[in-house]
Amino acid sequence: MPIPSSTMASLQSLTLISKCTIFSYQKLSLSFFPLLPGRLKTDTSSYVYITCNDAGVDFIHTSAIHIHVLDIFSPTDVPNYVQEFFTFDRTVSYDCHFKPILDVQVSELADGVSIGCALNHVVTDGTSFWNFFDTFTEVCGIGARKISRVPDFHRESVLISPAVLRVPEGGPKVTFSVDAPLREFSVSSENRF
Name one GO molecular function term (predicted). Predict the structure, then answer.
């Protein structure tokens, strides 16, 4: 997102206090979503579940002041370096036995900010992710201690199967080339449905 020029000076002097404030807002938001700071765990019967052990969520602050907002959104194909704004790039779901289920990366750009959020889709879907992000926005914007939309963690669906997938010791093997080119593209607002 681009930043108004009047705000650039304050962005460039982003202090430890403001970083701590963002971190504390994230921590408060996560208190409403206790599964996200947990880890996946496979028991002896091969059932995979989430252990709510507060192992944590990564919050990363980076600087990419040599990149402009238009560098990202002007080309038809999204530049490869944009993948670095998302810490789960080339990560498979099973890795969340050892890595966070959610990562947030704030990257300062020359004329804006990129907020990259990565969430394991084994744990939640896009709608639930946006619920978390909206909660984070509520907490940041008005300092809410009570949120307007409480998350629903029930797993009641006809799509849930009693079958147990046996995962080999050490996790599944990746069957695709992690070095294969990845093509991502941006769509202008005029061309969206």
Answer: transferase activity
**What single-letter DSSP state applies at residue 176?**
S
Q: Tell me how far apart the alpha carbons of residues 169 and 2 are, in angstroms, rounded to a whole number.
A: 46
Supply the pTM of this predicted model. 0.72
The residue segments making up the domain with residue 27 are 5-191
* Tally of structural domains, the chain: 1
Q: Which of 54-58, 67-71, 104-108, 156-160 has the lowest mean pLDDT?
A: 156-160
The Cα 53–Cα 8 span in angstroms is: 39
Cα separations (Å) of 128 from 7, 45, 85, 115? 31, 28, 21, 18
Phi, psi of 97 (to 5 degrees): -70, -25
